[in-house]
Give the backbone structure.
Amino acid sequence: MNSKIRVFSGLRPTGRMHLGNYLGAIMNWVKMQETHDCIYSVVDYHAITTPFKPEELRRDTRDMLVDLLATGLDPEKCALVVQSELPQHTELAWILGSITPLGWLERVPTYKEKASMHPDYLNLGLLSYPVLMASDILVYRAEAVPVGEDQLPHLELTREIVRRFNHWFGDTFPEPEAIMKKETARIMSLKEPEKKMSKSLGEDSYIGIGDDPETIHAKIKRAVTDMGPDSTAMGPGVANLFNLLQIFGQEADYLTLYEDYETGSLRYVDLKTVTADAIIEGLRPIREKRKEIKSNPEILENALQLGHEKASAMATKTLSRVKERIGVGRDVNI
Ligand code: TRP
């Protein structure tokens, strides 16, 4: 256990998990729990930095947790936690925030982007989002962080904070490395296939990992198959369907349909039917596990309890070391 590399990653509670999250990130989380010492968190305090509704946030957090267990996170192998349930995350964020220059935060691209998206919702939390993220990672002294490309500036900031902390107060944190997944499974929106699959593009644009077979058929049927701007190349919507078929389907089906495409005889309705069937079959174990968890809420409760115990012990140790280094608290040796 101790010789394994420690890994932390966080997921914002956006509700139901979709194929993009699953194939792009979570499948890898599930694999890594076999080889690394992993802590995974649903980061609900990050969710309140942009406009939100309390009742939706709590439901989304729970849905995400259920989906994480359903896709194969094993509470015996990793620690699954809810960020807001471990006050050490926010406590360390205060400390790290006090050594982070404002200039570092103001130039983070996601801050600028979100600030322009919600100009009436500019708050300190949004600016210090990357500090809380640094704290999520560092409170466990994690050495590696599986993230998507969009998160690299945040991770670089984390490393800068580590260097400054270690320089000022002595070696305390390892500099965490990004683990970038290979871009083999970039799943696009079904409706706007030049954009990444995302819940924010509308119901019909994504397939939830818990969607029932009828819904999956209906959504795939409505998927866009237009040509791209270059009409000699395969349109991005068609390419996305082929990509999904390659991931979930039988190789023989993929090859036959691809040949049809190349000879100009492909009927999109066939591609859609076969792809939808393949996805439905591929997601069957996850659908069944979800049902089981939903009818036995103690599965989730037990997983979180176990995760909390493991994570809390690590986080408390880090904080007492950090506090000693920076000289807060009273001197117990007098
Ligand atoms: N900011 C990440 C995202 O939007 C989520 C996140 C929060 C995270 N804390 C983290 C990811 C720590 C990795 C490590 O996807």
Summary: The two ends are 38 Å apart (CA to CA). The pocket of tryptophan is lined by residues 8-10, 12, 43, 46, 133, 136-137, 145, 147, 151, 154 (CB under 6 Å). The chain has a mean pLDDT of 94.
